User: Fold this.
Amino acid sequence: MGKVVTFGEIMLRLEPLGYYRFLQSDQYQALYGGGEANVAVSLANFGVDVDYVTKLPAHEIGQGAVNSLRRFGVGTEKIVRGGDRVGIYYLEKGAAQRASKVIYDRSNSAAALAKAEEFDWEAIFDGAEWFHFTGITPALGGELPLICEEACKIAKKKGLKVSCDLNYRKKLWSRDQAKETMTKLAGYIDVCIANEEDAKDVFGISAPATDIEGGKLNHEGYKAVAEQLAGTYGFDMVAITLRTSLSASDNIWAAMLYDGSRHYFSKSYPVHIVDRVGGGDSFGAGLIYSFLNGKETQDTLEFAVAASCLKHTVEGDFNMVSIEEVRKLAEGDGSGRVQR
Amino acid sequence: MGKVVTFGEIMLRLEPLGYYRFLQSDQYQALYGGGEANVAVSLANFGVDVDYVTKLPAHEIGQGAVNSLRRFGVGTEKIVRGGDRVGIYYLEKGAAQRASKVIYDRSNSAAALAKAEEFDWEAIFDGAEWFHFTGITPALGGELPLICEEACKIAKKKGLKVSCDLNYRKKLWSRDQAKETMTKLAGYIDVCIANEEDAKDVFGISAPATDIEGGKLNHEGYKAVAEQLAGTYGFDMVAITLRTSLSASDNIWAAMLYDGSRHYFSKSYPVHIVDRVGGGDSFGAGLIYSFLNGKETQDTLEFAVAASCLKHTVEGDFNMVSIEEVRKLAEGDGSGRVQR
Amino acid sequence: MGKVVTFGEIMLRLEPLGYYRFLQSDQYQALYGGGEANVAVSLANFGVDVDYVTKLPAHEIGQGAVNSLRRFGVGTEKIVRGGDRVGIYYLEKGAAQRASKVIYDRSNSAAALAKAEEFDWEAIFDGAEWFHFTGITPALGGELPLICEEACKIAKKKGLKVSCDLNYRKKLWSRDQAKETMTKLAGYIDVCIANEEDAKDVFGISAPATDIEGGKLNHEGYKAVAEQLAGTYGFDMVAITLRTSLSASDNIWAAMLYDGSRHYFSKSYPVHIVDRVGGGDSFGAGLIYSFLNGKETQDTLEFAVAASCLKHTVEGDFNMVSIEEVRKLAEGDGSGRVQR
Amino acid sequence: MGKVVTFGEIMLRLEPLGYYRFLQSDQYQALYGGGEANVAVSLANFGVDVDYVTKLPAHEIGQGAVNSLRRFGVGTEKIVRGGDRVGIYYLEKGAAQRASKVIYDRSNSAAALAKAEEFDWEAIFDGAEWFHFTGITPALGGELPLICEEACKIAKKKGLKVSCDLNYRKKLWSRDQAKETMTKLAGYIDVCIANEEDAKDVFGISAPATDIEGGKLNHEGYKAVAEQLAGTYGFDMVAITLRTSLSASDNIWAAMLYDGSRHYFSKSYPVHIVDRVGGGDSFGAGLIYSFLNGKETQDTLEFAVAASCLKHTVEGDFNMVSIEEVRKLAEGDGSGRVQR
Amino acid sequence: MGKVVTFGEIMLRLEPLGYYRFLQSDQYQALYGGGEANVAVSLANFGVDVDYVTKLPAHEIGQGAVNSLRRFGVGTEKIVRGGDRVGIYYLEKGAAQRASKVIYDRSNSAAALAKAEEFDWEAIFDGAEWFHFTGITPALGGELPLICEEACKIAKKKGLKVSCDLNYRKKLWSRDQAKETMTKLAGYIDVCIANEEDAKDVFGISAPATDIEGGKLNHEGYKAVAEQLAGTYGFDMVAITLRTSLSASDNIWAAMLYDGSRHYFSKSYPVHIVDRVGGGDSFGAGLIYSFLNGKETQDTLEFAVAASCLKHTVEGDFNMVSIEEVRKLAEGDGSGRVQR
Amino acid sequence: MGKVVTFGEIMLRLEPLGYYRFLQSDQYQALYGGGEANVAVSLANFGVDVDYVTKLPAHEIGQGAVNSLRRFGVGTEKIVRGGDRVGIYYLEKGAAQRASKVIYDRSNSAAALAKAEEFDWEAIFDGAEWFHFTGITPALGGELPLICEEACKIAKKKGLKVSCDLNYRKKLWSRDQAKETMTKLAGYIDVCIANEEDAKDVFGISAPATDIEGGKLNHEGYKAVAEQLAGTYGFDMVAITLRTSLSASDNIWAAMLYDGSRHYFSKSYPVHIVDRVGGGDSFGAGLIYSFLNGKETQDTLEFAVAASCLKHTVEGDFNMVSIEEVRKLAEGDGSGRVQR
Assistant:
């Protein structure tokens, strides 16, 4: 089995302890996270050989990001070092009717200012089998759309599978910008991952009669969305995560997968949330792991959903769960009995 | 819009971390809180100009109380400084079937020993539009009943609206004492706020066939209570908070408001509790904010209930929420989706 | 009322803070716990005179275990001091679908290597009325089965009641070893306590058609199990705790008690879990307390179940609750209203 | 060797973490301490059988004080339970030129309001050999001077040695009050312990030409003070601790002992301070331990000074050191080499 | 006495706990600080009426900065709200031979991108008597040099005294840039404050034969520097802080003041460091306080040096000391004896 | 430059926070450390390619040890996984006259029970240039002496330099056992590292007239020791660290190096201690780094001493310092001035 490469921005995540609000706290938990880094750690925790690519400053805050990855076995040798700052996101954990809150301070990070010539994709993809990125990376602007395109081109040339999680972020770019750029990149993408809103935000494709705020999801609608995505952009696979937000503490979590001919729906999990950040990323990592291991489609989907269900019980961006734990849940044991 | 003035006692709140019981912990979270202070901070968080009046020692523990208020924008210039001690309440957070526990150590505090001549109400109410206090303040004894009466008198003379949250505390005074004193003060009060039990404890007015311990509430009964309160004591408005205690972790929260002619009932919220102390105070603050801003009665009630629903998700006595957060919930979005 | 003596191993319990996984944490909560020590502390919290017997090293880690007991009033004078190490268990708290995880590092502890001649049971049982141990103690191997037998023999000789919680631990011994040893000890035991699986694991007696993983329990089956246990081994009383694991965060908790003629079933409590370790031990302590105080059988059971229901809301192995708190719940008030 | 009994008030000690000032901190370390309790714990740590007598409320804050003592092996059976509050002292740790700061909130504590009839000194002193108290106890006022006198009378009657640490606290009583009361008690005292200022504050006996603020001590002067104390009040032994305050972080620590005929001076230790509260109490405990064990006078003094030197390196009021550690230092090894 | 106004940038200060290095820590203390904000808080702690002016984002991280100031009584009404980010500095505390380390992430902060038209200096200086800023503020670039010049102009026009701490930061601008800008501003400055290196870095004026790295200071040289500064730029007063760095843990601290005719040298303090950040700012605040209160020149200097000596014992950027504490030290009592 | 390989045992290090004693603390800092692991991390921090070899259990506590190494860039691919337990050492930090205390619980660890056939030294040393181990490794007993010998043999065969830090631990083996085993291994060792006592404990070679407890060191004596060591056992280089223990808080630190012909003495550093564990290991790492980089002998020694001087200011076993920081100190700048 070949290596996986993921590319994006890893940020410093600053978070008041427990359920304190920003204005009540003078201590922050200081972890690191970011879509593609989260996928990389999750894969490493499944025993996959994975390299994470980004640009990070040489100073200790940048080094902290590197160490947060290699601690869990992610390859960091391809990370370009330089620039001045590590992007930051402040996170306040919600509870019940009070939503979690994110304040971004990521402009002008080393990653956002990275230059195309700093990445030797031919070398980076040496020995690799899969390339993953998210829509956040081109949304960073500067040369990033160009770098993503170049990475995709060389990935395809070298025979890698390419997956992308659309991950629309309205604070980073407009829907028009997203559509223009992502349309260019879509042709290289084999596996497209999205949540309930991404398809509409990025490609203007929406599930009829879905009421996200109200927490209701419409399965038939998502089948149509998946078909349109696959039909229009030529994705081999389209995966859509289906989150019903009952409150900041309780969600229902499921997903569907469309393989060009059939729609698969996963089991649905009630999730009592410890930390939901990185939920989608852990789903992506579950998918990639399963595809790499040649699982059946329904099993692939169930593994990915079980993995990401467990993510909601883990603090931090990274999904710290093992294959065995995911399998146990996917096979039906969510009883949480003490493992002695 | 004029200023709000609140008057009462602010205490040091000492609380074991997390869910530790008193006897397991050798570290305390040290925050400050008290009914009228909680209302003041909540109003300041809504952008209202508010002064808090009390008496506090000049030493650092007293200064800590002052700083806890001015940090959030509450005016503290009218606080009388002097005396020896800050009242304390020890709080142990309950969970599920285990109730939260409060141990008071508030006797002989600077506030409880305050003298009438220390407060120049004419000056304090200068530029003010609203005066709020709770039944706890006269219950402190000493000259406090007298001081409250004097404050009310001058408030009315200067045209302020007066609100009072009955807040009966059986450790501070008997029902007879409460009735005698509160009956004297009732004539000055425009808006009376109570919880399910206060009307009975203070004025002997009870909702027929209500079974508080069993967690059942009787809407018709509360309508009768509100009418009797308004009828007997001449309140313009009577607001009653309706808490159904399923367990220390889960409550249902709602309220009713009677304006002398109609009864309004709010939406009912299931609350998964982070910290329920100050729930009633945050409701009072929501009411006052809405009245000051001339909202419709039903909207007034819904704002107050939504504000206090959110309080249950916030650590500490103070309700750290913004107008926007309250509005979003009052308008129906309690989905808790991450705000990025 | 005479003294209770409990005998077993107390371990250092090392646990990441909050919901952190082992690999995310570089700080451990360091508490102490172990089946019989948990029973002892629980009894001491009910005001019972209780001695705990074990062997612990003379160094500070051993002394820490002693202090953790005498802090709550357990008699520690009979503890043998010597040996090199305190057994350890690492505990990772689960949430929702993610199970709690225990890693044992208890081999070669001072307790496991204790010698029969180090315990003078005649003296230890002086003035005692009840002796309690669990199946974990003989499972430690070495001379422990022998020591347990000797303790039981002398206990019976001196007229003590003997209770034993089967507590099968598959990492400590095989089912065959357990059956052989426990069969020898069974003759001395008056009160046998077990959970849903112990009877099967230890004595090969199973409730027909019970599906533990699926969380379903079969009351009729357990009646049969209790009868067989009592019939085969001559126990006066058989108590079985009935846990339905909905998830690591939510269980349903109940128990049954068979007195040789009738089966009693307790109320059933939904438990939202703070810490479920020691749940069974707190049930045992509730039983012993009630038996010592001559309660009616149904009341005995209800007290024990209410006590252990509350344990799930308390951090650590030890059940830190008072008789009053247990009674209040047993009598039906689980509303969790703040106790001021 | 008989038992030691100490009598006084134990308080809740609330202290910001690390070197934070009161106004910077919203978390307090919550320990317990008080002159005579500190002596009791220190003696228990030396293996001495010791009972601590006081009055404490029945609630959890009072129970916490009890547990803090029995955790370390102090006998707490003679503690009277009742009253409402545990006295508090707030402690802010100083550093370098910034002094440590103490704010007392101890008025009206259960101990301060204790009644003479609540203490059965005949029973308390049963089997005891030594009685220790400090000048703080009568300074609490109310019936405490009377209770101390009664305790002393019965102690002498039953043949106990009586020691008293003068411990003048200007916030508790005036010099005149102190002199009047302590003069009455002096006749019962065998061993009088004082620091550099107490003799002057309490009895008006001063060392000529001592400049405490400047940190200079005058050995000849103290010899004179000791002689006067012994001469005037008939003490068998007078011990004076000699502290040179270079800064809040660094002191020089020594003591002298006068046995009615000779003056003994101890070695002098530079102490780099972790926590200096309880320094004098740990000295008293060292003296008592040595007297009980019949040590030579110089050895007695050196043991007491070495014990209290080590106290300065231990957090909290209690001196957590062993006989072996004290001996090692008294014999000259203060090299602090790692003990493996 | 009129108001003081200070103007500059306040940053979020992120610092590993205790002595942990950046790469060892996943928790940060999150305080706020910045030269002029530090001066403002110090003055507020001395009871001075002081306004702090800057630009801060409207979000919670910006609000946190505002709250950190008003908590201690600094006026924040003149702060412009807007922009996206709060500048950050990461601080790692040194010890002994290991130096403290600062990593700046302050580019593009709301303050650095502030526009001249956002500040109405006429209104800001209403009722003010003194204006203080540091060389860091114009060094932020953009319109800041211009804004500083305008502020100075209007300050002088309205009769305020103007003080400036040169505070050269080589990461913000070159020596040439500094000289050009500061030369323009010098004409408005009455009181110039500098450390041992600033005069050389900013104005190219150096003390002959000073060896900073070696920790030696040359008093005669500094007299010459002060005279040149005053002579060339027309300052009424020149104050120079004199720090001898023995190690990251121990410094010697003193200062000189030149009033155009005489040089005053302060006492010299050995400082055992808790936190040395903000040492210079606390000196500046001490000077301003003394000038405003019309103290003698030597007393002014001694007050400022004692205040800043104490700052080294206080965690955080802000000097949390009272006038009484400073006076006590300035008058010679640095013994650190416990204040009860 | 080739790779370095180190081999030994890494333990879980459990330590009360701050200066709390074991019996006062219910929270432990949980780090990892061990002689050869410490050397490996230190080398990785200097940018050296280094592999650490040991045996660790597959469970999370074992994985935690692996992660603690790869986080800082140490190669962990050669670590054998298996066995049941990770060795533990409990560490209590001393202060002033109170010594640090270590309690070992390392028997029967996976490393101590490792088997010779589990290590393929030919493969492990592939591409390596240097092999380092300490006397602790053979002292673990079992097959470890044999494994060390085999490792040394193959290392020499493949042309690696071999260094060994004698590191005598009296709790692991007797002096006789140490001498017998280490004499066998000595023939393979090129660079022998020892502290002031090791030569005597292991080989019976002592410096005449050295008084370790008193803190005095005898330079002439150590020259003689080094010569004897080199002469008797054929070491190319002998390095001796020279620690003068003034107290647990303050040491003087220096070293000597003997190259067979000349003795080199380093500068002597007063060290104010944050954490002295791993001081010797950081010296060894400094030596190896310098030898690998072909430094002059005096420079080699100064680098190693400066590196280990800095270690004393760093929490944990690992020396978290960079080449630049070491060089700066070795070149004479220990002023600790803030690095901005």
Q: What stands out?
A: Residues 3-330 of chain C form a domain with the UDP-N-acetylmuramoyl-L-alanine:D-glutamate ligase fold (CATH 3.40.1190.20).
